[in-house]
Amino acid sequence: MESPFKVTGIDHVVLHVTDLARAKKFYIDFLGMAIDHESSWQCFLKCGSQGIALFELDEGEEVHGGSEVNHMALRLAAGDYDRVKSTLETAGIKVHGRKNDPHCIYFNDPDGHHLQLLMPNE
């Protein structure tokens, strides 16, 4: 079977954090990463052509450091949101968005690992 997609690389990996300011200080000041973009609850950092996203958890939620990666984001060589979403759904894959951004394409691999597909122009 020919693949309907062409992944060009890992765009970012998300790490859950309990204190966004503390995590930013570590990744920026200690590891030398740079802010790509951020909001009040998330910060996307660049390290070369890849990225790490720090997502601050809601109060009371726990970080499972060392045993959990929230999701792996894969950048596509071609495609648009509607076509990619339709292709996944036609293949029987349940697709969903995320809080504050319903146009994200999230889904699980056969073992339950959480993946995201990013369109080339994102």
What is the topology?
Blueprint: E1 7-17, H1 20-30, E2 34-38, E3 42-47, E4 50-56, E5 72-76, H2 81-90, E6 96-98, E7 101-108, E8 114-118
Parallel strand pairs: 1-4, 5-8
Antiparallel strand pairs: 1-5, 2-3, 3-4, 6-7, 7-8
Describe this structure in words.
The protein has 122 residues and is an alpha+beta fold. The protein has a single domain (7-118), classed as 2,3-Dihydroxybiphenyl 1,2-Dioxygenase, domain 1. The chain has two helices and eight strands, in the order E-H-E-E-E-E-H-E-E-E. Strands 2-3-4-1-5-8-7-6 form an eight-stranded mixed beta sheet. A hairpin with a 2-residue loop joins strand 6 (96-98) and strand 7.
Name its key features.
122 residues; alpha+beta; 2,3-Dihydroxybiphenyl 1,2-Dioxygenase, domain 1; eight-stranded mixed sheet; 17% helix; 41% strand
Count of DSSP-assigned helices: 2
* Element order: H for helix, E for strand: EHEEEEHEEE
Q: Strand-residue fraction?
A: 35-45%
Shape: globular
Share of helix among residues? Answer: 10-25%
Class by SSE composition:
alpha+beta
Can you name the CATH architecture? Roll
The Rg value, from CA coordinates, equals 15 Å
Strand adjacency order, main sheet: 2-3-4-1-5-8-7-6
Counting DSSP E segments of at least 2 residues, the number of strands comes to 8
- Stretches where pLDDT is under 50 for at least 5 consecutive residues are none
Number of domains: 1
